[in-house]
Structures are given as structure tokens and as C-alpha cells.
Design brief:
Elements lengths: L13 H26 L5 H12 L6 H62 L6 E4 L4 E4 L2 E4 L2 H15 L6 H9 L8 H15 L2 H7 E4 L3 E4 L6 E3 L1
Parallel strand pairs: 1-6
Antiparallel strand pairs: 1-2, 2-3, 4-5
Helix pairs in contact: 1-3, 2-3, 4-6, 5-6, 6-7
């Protein structure tokens, strides 16, 4: 069986993508915040206008007129305080938007990296350092995982393991013939394929079982395990 190789093309370093993305996000939002703050009205604009009214209308001496100017002055102070609070709220929202975009970027890069990793695993197969078949207990140990199998599933796995030790690839007909003891003429491919499916079902994890028991087109089934890692007990 040829050695597994990864054909996944090398892409940009995820750390570089994250750093570049963070810099781009900070620059874009920083420029947007600068333009926004520069176009906001001056917090003291209203007070300056009120002050100008006081200066230009110093002849106003009536109590009602003075009271009106005082109200305008108080309104200017309130407007200044409100605009300052708006500036703070906008600043907080910009910081929150930056954090959210950075988190989204990291999440997307993580998903892309994970997808590439899964693609590499799918192409190269899982790395099995030890596969031990315990016939008496109907148990198979794959690395540090242990699976309890039925008699039929254990027989199928045993046949595949022995074939792998001999560097053979078995078709569905050959698997069915070896397990049932019938002649290959009396067996069909579907019966062997059914045994493989049941074995995969017993192993539980669909992805792991699909990668562990490979189906080579027009040839048959083979364990994606190095012969030196297989032990039959």
C-alpha cells in the first residue's frame, strides 16, 4: 500500500491572515471613526451662539428678556452635555464593532483551517499506530479507543486485518466467501459490501470508519493501517 501523502496546497499562514485582517479592520474603522467625529458639530457651538446673543443684545434689561437668555444658556449647556455623551456612545460602538469583526475574522480563519485539516485527513487517512483484534472478547483496540463488536463484525475485521498483513485487497465477493465458507461463484459483491457497512456502523464514528476501511475503486476493500501496527490475539 503506497505511503499516504497530503496533496493539500499550502495556503497563507493563518496567523498572518489574522494579523493582516486585524490591521485592515482597525484602519478601516479608525478612518470611519475619524471622519464621523470630524463631522460632528462642536459641543460648544450652541454656547458660543448664546454668548454672542448676550454680547449683541446687552441692551436687554427686562427681567423676561434676561430670563430668556438664561434659558438659552442652560439649553446650550444641556446640548453640550448630550453631544459629549453621544460621542462616548459612538466611541463604545466603534470599539464593539472592531472587537466583533476581529472575532468574526478569527472564527472564519479557524473554520477554514479546520476544513483544510479535515481535507488533509480525508486524503491521507487516519494515523493508526496500533490495531489489536481480541477474538475471544470480540474487542478491537484502535490506538487508545476500544470497540465491542458483534461476531459477524469481528469476522469481517479479522479478514480485512489478515489480508492487510498479506498486503492484499479484498473484493466484496472474496470477503463474503472467506467468512461464509462458500465458493466465490455462490457469493455476490452486495453481501460483502453489507458486511463492510455493518462493520463501519459498529465502529460508530462514520468519518473514522470510512477512512479506516478504504474502498478502492474496481479493486475492493483494505484497511488503511500499516501491517506492523496490526496484532491478532
Amino acid at each position: 500500500m503506497p505511503e499516504n501523502t497530503s496533496s493539500a496546497s499550502k495556503g497563507p499562514n493563518p496567523a498572518q491572515v489574522i494579523v493582516g485582517g486585524v490591521i485592515a479592520i482597525v484602519l478601516i474603522l479608525g478612518i470611519a471613526a475619524l471622519v464621523l467625529f470630524l463631522n460632528l458639530p462642536d459641543a460648544n457651538a450652541f454656547n458660543l451662539r448664546v454668548e454672542q446673543l448676550f454680547i449683541e443684545n446687552d441692551a436687554l434689561t427686562e427681567a423676561s428678556e434676561i430670563r430668556l437668555l438664561e434659558i438659552l444658556a442652560q439649553s446650550g449647556t444641556a446640548f453640550s452635555d448630550t453631544l459629549s455623551s453621544y460621542r462616548f456612545i459612538i466611541f463604545v460602538l466603534m470599539v464593539f464593532a472592531t472587537a466583533l469583526l476581529v472575532a468574526s475574522l478569527v472564527f472564519v480563519v479557524f473554520l477554514v483551517t479546520l476544513a483544510k485539516r479535515l481535507s488533509q485527513i480525508e486524503k491521507s487517512g487516519i494515523q493508526v499506530s496500533s490495531l489489536v483484534v481480541h477474538r475471544a472478547d470480540r474487542i478491537v483496540q484502535i490506538n487508545d479507543m476500544e470497540f465491542k463488536l458483534t461476531e459477524a463484525a469481528l469476522e469481517t475485521l479479522s479478514v480485512l486485518a489478515e489480508a492487510r498483513l498479506d498486503d492484499d485487497i479484498l473484493s466484496g465477493i472474496e470477503i463474503e466467501a472467506m467468512i461464509s465458507g462458500k465458493s466465490q461463484v455462490d457469493c455476490d459483491e452486495a453481501s460483502g459490501a453489507t458486511r463492510i457497512k455493518r462493520l463501519r456502523d459498529h465502529l460508530g464514528n462514520q468519518m473514522m470508519s470510512e477512512l479506516l476501511i478504504k474502498n478502492i475503486a474496481r479493486k475492493g476493500y483494505v484497511l488503511a493501517v500499516e501491517p506492523a501496527a496490526i496484532r491478532m490475539e
